[in-house]
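From the methods appendix. Each design record in this collection lists the tokenized structure first, followed by the designed amino acid sequence. Records were kept in a plain field format so they could be parsed without special tools. The example shown here is representative of the layout used throughout.

RECORD:
FOLD TOKENS (121 positions):
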């Protein structure tokens, strides 16, 4: 029962910035993966950025250099700072955790409800 709640989405003009936050109640779980995904209208869900519990991050090529993913050591907050936004960044952004229960080997997948990001021309 990792509960994820995103916030920070909204409407911004091209070149603007938005900061997304994902509050995670992950008590009783060991987090193995954290990431931000997005889904644009008519497109498949895609990885935007991910970060390992140790802090190693990856980015989609299209956002590299513009977005920064970060998380706290408790794994209870995942953030995505988005700068120099482009219309192509428009979509619903989802927080995603992978985690396993203490004493369990199976990894479970958790998703937030999504937050809309709209970048206007």
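DESIGN:
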């Amino acid at each position: 029962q990792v509960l994820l709640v995103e916030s920070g989405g909204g409407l911004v003009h091209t070149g603007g910035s938005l900061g997304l936050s994902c509050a995670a109640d992950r008590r009783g779980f060991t987090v193995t993966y954290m990431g931000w995904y997005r889904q644009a209208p008519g497109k498949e869900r895609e990885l935007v950025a991910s970060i390992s519990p140790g802090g190693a991050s990856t980015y989609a090529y299209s956002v590299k250099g513009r977005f920064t993913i970060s998380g706290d050591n408790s794994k209870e907050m995942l953030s995505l700072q988005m700068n120099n936004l482009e219309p192509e960044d428009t979509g619903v952004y989802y927080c995603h955790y992978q985690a396993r229960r203490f004493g369990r080997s199976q990894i479970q997948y958790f998703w937030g409800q999504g937050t809309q990001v709209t970048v206007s021309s």
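APPENDIX NOTE: The mean pLDDT is 97.
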